[in-house]
Each structure stands twice: as C-alpha cells, then as structure tokens.
Description:
Radius of gyration: 32 Å
Shape: elongated
Structural class: alpha/beta
Number of strands: 28
Helix content: 10-25%
Distance between the termini: 31 Å
Mean pLDDT: 92
Low-confidence stretches: 119-130
Largest sheet: 6 strands, mixed
Amino acid sequence: xxxxxxxxxxxxxxxxxxxxxxxxxxxxxxxxxxxxxxxxxxxxxxxxxxxxxxxxxxxxxxxxxxxxxxxxxxxxxxxxxxxxxxxxxxxxxxxxxxxxxxxxxxxxxxxxxxxxxxxxxxxxxxxxxxxxxxxxxxxxxxxxxxxxxxxxxxxxxxxxxxxxxxxxxxxxxxxxxxxxxxxxxxxxxxxxxxxxxxxxxxxxxxxxxxxxxxxxxxxxxxxxxxxxxxxxxxxxxxxxxxxxxxxxxxxxxxxxxxxxxxxxxxxxxxxxxxxxxxxxxxxxxxxxxxxxxxxxxxxxxxxxxxxxxxxxxxxxxxxxxxxxxxxxxxxxxxxxxxxxxxxxxxxxxxxxxxxxxxxxxxxxxxxxxxxxxxxxxxxxxxxxxxxxxxxxxxxxxxxxxxxxxxxxxxxxxxxxxx
Length: 418
C-alpha cells in the first residue's frame, strides 16, 4: 500500500502554482494579495477635526480659566464635506464637525462639550439660534489637540497592503479608503464536487428501502469553500460508466479541480474506478490509512483538450471528509497563496486507544485545554460511516502507522478542525 506521505505528494503534484489575476475589491474577500499595494493618496488627505467642536488658535485661549473665560466670536461653520478653503483669523473661532477640513491658521479643536455659547449653553443648536454667536472658553488647549494630521495614518507612496496578505474586511476597507477599485490577487480555485451511487437520494425526497440521502457532495463542497475555493456540488450520477463520463465532460470545462466520492473500491459497480481506468490518466491506489484506504488521483481531459485535475475519494462520509483534510485541503490552499494546512498541536490523551498495525489512523476527537496544556478525548468508533461523531469532533488525532495502542496520558499529535 502507498503511504500517506507518498499520496500527499501525488495529489499535491496535480496543482499548478498560484495564478495572479486582477479582481474588483468588492470580490476580493478571502483572497490573497499577489503584489504589494501602494497608496497614491495620504490618509487623512488633509488636516481635519477629530471632534465636533471649535477650531481655534491655541494662543488665543492661553489665559482662559473658569473664573475668567475667554469669549470669541464664531466666524464660520465647517461641516464635513465642505470643499472651499477657509482661513481662521486670530481672535475668532470656526465651528467644525468631525472629519471636516481644518481651516488654515487653526492649530487645535476644542470639543463642544468644553464650551458654552453666550446663552450659557454649549449646544450647537443653541449657537445656531444666535445672530452673532460668541463662544466662551474656560481652559487653555495644547497645540495640535483633537486634530487628525494629514498623512498620520498612511502617506502617499507607502505600502498599504503587503503581498501575501489575506484580504479580510479591514484590508478591503483600507483599499477602498485609498481609492483602489481593482487589486491583484492569487486566483480562487474552482472546485466541482460529484458524488456517485444509485442508492443516493436528494434530501427532502422520500426514501425507499436500500436508499440513503446524498451527503458527501454538499459536505465536500462546503469543505472546499471553507478552504477558500469557489465550490459547487453537481447532481450525483448513478452507477453507470457512460453516464459518469458524460457528466465529467459537462463539468470539466468550468473546473480547476474535480472531486468525486464513491466508486473507487475493489468491488463490483465501482463506476468511478471502472470509467477512469478505461480512459486512463487516473491512478487508483490503496493508502495505508484509516479511514480512507481506497484513493485515486490524476487528470481528465475537458472538451477543449485541457487536462483537469481529478481526485477520487472513497464514498463513506467519514473517509471522504478525512481524505479531503489530509490530501486536498493543503495543496488547494497553497494554489491560492494561502497557508497550506491546519494547525497541529500536541495533546494529552484522556482515554487509551487502539490503532490498526501498518495504517496511519486519523481518529476523531474533542480537543480542549487544561492548566497543563492541550488535552484530547477520542470520540466514537473508528468506522467510516459514523458521521455523527465526525460532526461532534473538532480535531483529528494523528496516530502513526507503526503504533497499535496508546495509554491514556500519552502525548499525541492533533490536527485542529476549528
């Protein structure tokens, strides 16, 4: 049998290096910047007020006290968005709103809460009622107080986003703030998932004896989406070689990767194995692991003649998803410029475990922390149809192929799924 490590290499070899494309910022969420993005503008682009208040010359308020306030006339209103350029004359103030451009000559902003109009109130509404508002100040203010200086966030010409940065909400906000509409990113991989089996029924329909609801396709599509790809599941095909090949031909043109589940074992009616063995280009092997021994990978040819990677997974749901985690997720993410794998930690076993000799086992578990570090509790039997326990797990316990049993308290490797 092939080792897990050898099959990981075979699967990884199917993927091309990341490809840079230019996309709209609105479509870049979750993608990785392919090049540095430099800003052409500074943030802020002009000195502006950090408060609703009054733009002043600090020197005018140097002697202000509660007992001897300084009263200055309000000469102008500056709302956010005002585009003409004003100059503040000594001995006067301008009422200014948060984000509004600071007038020339002003060197501080006094918050409205620290002032009063000549009616004894510091509310803007009150000041608007006065024919010639006069504002009373009862304390001095330092130069530069409550001013956002031009370029204090970022200066034109600086790198705003480094190559290799995954673009999340804050990064997209920064790109928008510096006026970027298109960004160079590593292209998102297009994954198409196809399940096979005459026994499969779409959820919501009635089951007949011998039928089961189809679950692998939406599960694997969700796993690919979670990994950062653009994934879709297409309707399963029954156990028919011609029907399977026709479906592959339909979907291959829109795929960077095709994932199938089922039909790869050694029994009869193994439609995926039968079909792709006949056409060539796909290698079917047994991998020394539990769950997920039967595997296949290679290429199919789309109608245009392009070789499309295809990875064929076993049909049991636990085998299928564990195989995705072990073989597909790391190179799929790497092909999009993303960190390739899950976090692995060392954890203390809370229960003893047994493992088959000669097979690397990926056992479902619940990972937690104690004062002594990570702890992990194995859950459920190792059988590959127990999807319930996989749904309740947040880790896969990685047991080496030459280990047959481990006592509780032993330190094991655990791959976090959360």
